[in-house]
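Before the break, one more example. Copy the sequence into your notebook; we will annotate it together after we see the structure.
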Amino acid sequence: MPKVITAQEAEAILSQGGEPPAGAILTPSARDVFAGRTRLGGRAPAAPAPAAKPAGPTVPDYEFKWTPGSDPKSAAEIEKFFHSGPIEALKAKICGIGRRIWEKDYVDGNGGNIVVRVGDNLALCTPTLISKGFMAPADICLIDLDGKQLAGERKRTSEAMTHLGIMKRQPKAKACVHAHPPHATAFAVAAVRPPTCMIPEAEVFLGEIGYAKYQTPGTPENADEVGKIGVDHQAIIMENHGVIVWGKDVEDAYWKMENTDSYC
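Here is what the structure looks like once it is written out:
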């Protein structure tokens, strides 16, 4: 009687480099084993790779990351960078934050400014004389960390220098938002620094709120005063002016603006 070869026996035969005996009867599963050997060039089919474990819970990360030393240099390179996909998306994000601070009544007229660092020596910023509630991506400017405008159809805001004063001193400050939220600005007008240890959220997300003495907005003196305070404080009340905050990205900075006004 012909020998019947099972799948297990077929695998054993293949593991020793053999062939099924002449005249043997192969079960359907054994035929599959030998057929797999044929498809794989004489080797038994490999075991399937284990399924990848699903990723765990995540949180959004809006931080703009770049490779150090990769800043564009020529005019053509700068223009290409300025209109690249990631930068266009960030311009739209800046406009969205501008709309939010306007809708919260944190700014009036052309008040407020936003700056986001995008390179070793590059930053996007809002232009001068524009309502933050009605900006379009085409309005956003590209500047270096000395305030020189490199790209953009509209003139950059003079108050970008205050934001850059922080960014030059504090590498973690990737985005700054300046506005005039009513409760925090009341502290600025009254020249009163908010107390600490009132509610835990402020301690966690803001730490101690800084206080900068009045200097004329947009001047080197204001950039220097606020820049020094910004090294150790993520939220700063500027005397007789308003508030400036910084974070790892523009969303993070905006949240700190809300946190500051709510705390005040």
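The CA atoms of residues 247 and 255 lie 9 Å apart. The domain at 83-263 is CATH 3.40.225.10 (L-fuculose-1-phosphate Aldolase). Try to locate both features in your own notes.
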